[in-house]
Amino acid sequence: MAKTLRTSGDYTIKTGTGAGGSNSVIFDSKTTRVSGDLIVDGTSTTLNTATLTIEDPIIRLAKNNTNTVDTDSGILIERGVDNNAAFYWNEGETSFKAVLTTSDGTGTSITDTSLANIQVLDPTASSHAATKNYVDTEVSAIGGAFSINFTGDDSTTVAVASGNTVDIAGGSNISTAAAEPDTVTINLNQNLTDIHSITNSSTNADLTLSANSNGSVVINDILTFSGPASTPSADTVTKLYNKTPAGGGTGLYFINSQVSATEGELISKKKATALAIALG
User: Fold this and answer.
1) In a domain, 180, yes or no
2) For residue 255, what are the contacts with CB-CB under 8 A and spacing of at least 6?
3) Of the residues 39, 52, 105, 169, which has the maximum number of CB atoms within 10 A of its CB?
4) Residue 109 included in any domain
């Protein structure tokens, strides 16, 4: 015979000292239905059911997470004597992960023991995850190989096919080092030797030699002017050049607008002696 228990206010069933005690309320029936919201205020909810069906299309996890500490969140699957499996959000790495783990679902973190495989359908859009089968098929479609092109300053392009190695040789003045991931470092880490020519290929551009801080540009051998130069324009810097010798007898000229708008020739010792005698 069906019975209805009706009350005009709240109705409490309490066993022993309530939630702080050790007594239980047991409903022993084929079906127990709650017509209304069900709120469970406790530290653990255990469902010993063979089948779980949920109408809610979006399941919310880590409800009270304030993100003040790294809190991993996801689904953990028990596997008996083998490590458990988990698909979860790793807060420290800010990424979803599929892993095997020794974690049991308590606490706020998952400890990975190894990554797990994920099977997905071959992609149909550029933003879809690619399967190994898809990648193998795409590589096979281009002959099972690929190439990378390197272009030098002279615009010459060299194709490097798959299976080949790009060797960046350092020589006597430049050292190179390769490291993962995808990094090649080139250093000029010693004095230049066996350099026979330095050329600036840009039209009308200067070639500048600069010493650091209070250092000087030092020439430890003969400085040779290879051929007669034309008189340059006068600037507020001193320009030194060679032309056909004139009254100074050296053929070594300079020009600086702060000294004169016209060039001057450095005087040789012989010419200077002759002038000193002549001028008495």
Assistant:
1) no
2) 231, 232, 234, 238, 239, 262, 263, 264
3) 105
4) no
pLDDT digits (tens, 9 = 90+) for 134-189: 888 887 777 766 677 877 767 788 887 777 777 777 666 677 777 777 777 777 76
User: Is the separation of the CB atoms in 97 and 88 below 8 Å?
Assistant: yes
Which CA distances in Å does 212 have to 215, 217, 219?
5, 9, 16
240-262, pLDDT tens digit by residue? Answer: 999 999 989 999 999 999 988 89
- Report the alpha-carbon distance of residue 37 to residue 55 in Å, rounded: 14
As a whole number, the mean pLDDT across the chain is 87
Range of the domain at 257: 239-278
Domain count, the chain: 1
Amino acid identity for residue 263 in this structure: E
- The residues facing 157 across adjacent strands are 151
| pTM (2 d.p.) | 0.51
Angstrom CA distances, 47 to 32, 81, 105, 192, 268, stand at 14, 22, 15, 76, 108
The set of residues, in sequence order, having a beta carbon less than 8 Å from that of 191 and lying 6+ positions away, is 173
Q: What is the DSSP string of 139-207?
A: HHHTTS--EEEEE-TT--EEEEETT-------TTTEEEEEETTTEEEEEE-S---S-------STT---
Given a contact cutoff of 8 angstroms between Cβ atoms, the answer to whether 99 and 115 are in contact is yes
* Token reading at 7: 């009350």
CA–CA dist 76, 78 (Å, integer): 7
In a domain, 259, yes or no: yes
Nearest to residue 237, comparing CAs of 259, 210, 213?
Answer: 259
Rounded CA-CA distance 69/17 in Å is 35
Does a structural domain hold residue 248? yes
Q: pLDDT above 70 covers what percent of the chain?
A: 95
Quickly list H helices, 208-280.
269-278
